[in-house]
Amino acid sequence: MFYKDYIRVLNINLSTGRIRVDKRKDLRAYLGGVGVASKLLQENMNPDLPPLHEDQPIIFAIGAASSVFPVITKTVAMFVSPLTGELGESYAGGRLAFTMLHAGYDAIVITGKSQKPCYVTVTQTGVEIKDARAFWGMDSDKVGSYIRNREHGSGKRSIIRIGPAGENLCSYASVCVDTYRHFGRLGLGAVFGSKLMKAMQVTGDLPMPIPNFKDYFKTYSKLYKQVTETEVMAKYHDAGTPINVEPLSAMGGLPTRNLTSGTFEHAENISGEAFAKNNLIRKMACTGCPVGCIHIGQFRREFDHGYEYEAISVGYDYELIYALGSFLGVDNTDGVLYVIDAVERNGLDAMSCGVVLGWACEALERGIITEEQTILPLKMGDYVNLAKAVDYIAQGVNQLYTDMGKGVKHVAKKYGGYDFGMQIAGNEMPGYHTGYGSLVGALVGARHSHLCNAGYSYDQSNRDKELDKEKLVDYLISEEIERCLLNSLIICLFARKVYSRENIRMVLKCVGLDYTDETLTDIAKRILRTKLEIKKSLGFAIQDVKLPKRFFETPTTTGKLDQYMANEIAEEYARRCEEILAEEDESIKEFV
Amino acid sequence: MVITVELFHTLKKYNKERFKDDENSFELSIDGRDEILLDELVSLLNIPDEEVGFATINSVKHNWNDPIKDGDRIKIFPVIIAG
Ligand code: SF4
Question: Could you report the per-residue pLDDT of A482-540, keeping only the tens digit for each?
Fold first, then answer.
């Protein structure tokens, strides 16, 4: 909490119904957000139990300066990932951080398992665990509106919930946050499902007085100006991230048709401009963000013969367009939105889902699986059947679809086609086939995401230069460390250029934390160390990762990659991690 | 030589006066030259290097020192950032 020397943690045990609030001074050493959540995960998880065991926890945490500065909007969720079996870390915007702040909690720890389907309501005065049997089986948008109607209170509340995929324990089920945001990656939805928890509503009304308002206002105004006046942010507001589609395709970095190519010949048809012209109806923002990058598109769907149509609105961004567009050969904006809608309704992670479907289309074509198993004549570009397949995955209609719900690594190992099941350490690939930076970055990144260390960005700025292994490893590791800091405040990463060290220190000062640069670096390293320890305890080792061959067959924006070189870079990174793990953490004493 | 230049999003502002109405692209004539390097074109258009992400010549991948010829169509994109 602001101006307090402790972190306020709400503990909810779904098995016993016991609720406890802790004030933890020691957690200040981790600042907030991902730092606090990592430590709480480490304390509460059990490495010897499977990820979906009821004793495994779910941790939510907000940052040290959540919501009171522009674009500091996100909440982190941490858990043991049912998809990779190791560190689960996912971020979502919307209203959750804002409501947690005003309910008076820096972090929420959920353990145990409810006896029957439940949803949890959290307010500043307490927690209630309520019957959700009537909601079980509902799509995530429907359950949101039911809870909204049933529960009192409006305005400052956030409702997060799962769809059928989470209930059925799909390993990459997502959690929908306030309709258009998600904890998408690594399967938090399945962890909700394993606890029979359909949803959580957080409502908060506590005032948050800022003692030195004059300084706060000065700092806020400065940052607001920077955020709203930078070109990058304007770009995100205008066309949004889909602006990346065309240039990436032109340069050969847009994963297309199960990564058989890096160029999509129909990229122009699914570009940011195309979506803006054909479908865009509205832009929205997370609470506390003056940018508003959330783009909502609408398409028309025939639900019955005789010209019976309905208008469907869904959010879209680059990652979704890559995974459910170019990766699946879908060449028009309506088609992409059609598949996105299926993914949304069922509550799945779009990237994982697209990559799994890409494998399935190719596996069927090659005769590795049969049409009897796929039920549908699955093929690239056929968005109607691809959307049906999304329903089948979420429902686990037969053995193949149940297996597909466990992720592409699982299914490719079981049925064949490991070399074209496009995952990195068990997580389905992100939308950047740009070079060693993107590939090795995702391999070594703590959560195997393109956002761990932005390797794609390194590829972009170094693409005309010869590969310098040392420089790349330096970049990846320093970016990973810096992002631990950004994610402990939980700044939306779109605004990371605005939040320089100088600005971060100013922000922290306004909430009562006066830290030197050195202290901040120590905190960031401490967070990374904690994450690495968690990964180690869950059995992860960089050296064990076997990448599918296709990564090395399809040229990237920087040319074809060499498997041995990728391994060498990854091993050097692993060596550097060992050094970080072995470092003495002297400065933690300051916090104890 | 005359070429067509298409600039995307934030890069447009460096050449506002060259765009007509709603168009995304404009024609550029460069007197006394048969070819010009992509790098040179970027400077000619006053676009700061750090803002340029990708560029294509006739929709094909390029190198910064690739030559542009009469009649070519150039697309210049800003840097890619994800969040
Ligand atoms: S830039 Fe977009 S994702 Fe980030 S806080 Fe603003 S609206 Fe949310």
Answer: 999 999 999 999 888 899 999 999 999 999 999 999 999 999 999 999 999 999 999 99
Rounded distance from Cα A173 to ligand 1 centre (Å): 22
At A305, which CATH number? 1.10.569.10
**Are A126 and A55 members of one domain?**
yes
Which residues in A363-441 belong to E strands, given as ranges?
Answer: 423-424, 427-428
Which of A427, A443, A459 is the last residue before a domain boundary?
A: A427
A413 and A535: one domain?
no
> Element (H or E) spanning B28, and its range?
strand B25-29
How far apart are alpha carbons A287 and A296 in whole angstroms? Answer: 16
Looking at the structure of chain A, the number of domains it has is 3
Which residues, in sequence order, are CB contacts of A302 under 8 Å at separation 6+? Answer: A308, A309
Among the listed residues A77, A142, A43, the one whose alpha carbon sits nearest the alpha carbon of residue A347: A142
Q: Is the CB of A223 under 6 A from ligand 1?
A: no
CB within 8 A of A501, min separation 6: which ones? A517, A520
- Model confidence over A238-263: pLDDT tens digits? 888 898 898 899 888 999 999 999 99
Same-domain check for residues A159 and A253: no
Domain end residue (candidates: A427, A448, A464): A427
Best of A71, A227, A235 to disrupt the B interface by mutation (most B CBs within 10 Å)?
A: A235
Judgement on whether residues A450 and A336 belong to the same structural domain of the protein: no
CATH number at residue A148: 3.60.9.10
Which residues, 6+ apart, have CB-to-CB distance to A382 below 8 Å?
Answer: none
A466 within some domain = yes
Residue-wise over A181-218: b if at least 16 C-beta within 10 A, else e?
bbbbbbbbbbbbbbbbbbbbbbbbeeeeebeeeeebee
Residues of A in contact with B60 (CB under 8 A): 250
A481 belongs to a structural domain: yes
A372 within a domain of the structure (yes/no): yes
Is the CB of A569 inside a 6 Å radius of any atom of ligand 1? no
Range in A21-25, A80-84, A221-225, A233-237 with the lowest mean pLDDT: A233-237
Half-sphere exposure of B67 (CA within 13 A, CB side): 7
Q: CA-to-CA distance for A529 and A526, rounded, in angstroms?
A: 5
Q: Do residues A104 and A206 lie in contact, with contact meaning Cβ atoms separated by under 8 Å?
A: yes
ipTM comes to 0.74
Listed range (A19-28, A519-528, B20-29) with the worst mean pLDDT: B20-29
Predicted confidence (pLDDT) per residue in A165-192, tens digit? 999 999 999 999 999 999 999 999 999 9
CA distance A235 to chain B (A): 6
Give the number of other CB atoms < 10 A from CB of residue A150: 12
Residue A489 covered by a domain: yes
At A591 the pLDDT is 85
Give the structural domain span for A319: 236-427
Domains of chain B (ranges; CATH) run 2-78 (3.10.20.30)
CA of A186 to the centre of ligand 1 (A): 21
Q: Give the pLDDT mean for A82-107.
A: 97
pTM for the full model?
A: 0.94
Shared domain check, A144 and A45: yes
Residues A452, A546 within the same domain: yes
Q: Specify whether A399 is located in the same domain as A452.
A: no
Residues A339 and A289 placed together within one structural domain of the fold: yes
Checking if the pLDDT of A592 tops 80, the result is no
Task: Please list the residues that pair with B2 across neighbouring strands.
Answer: B29
Q: What is the pLDDT of residues A304-331, one digit of tens each?
A: 999 999 999 999 999 999 999 999 999 9
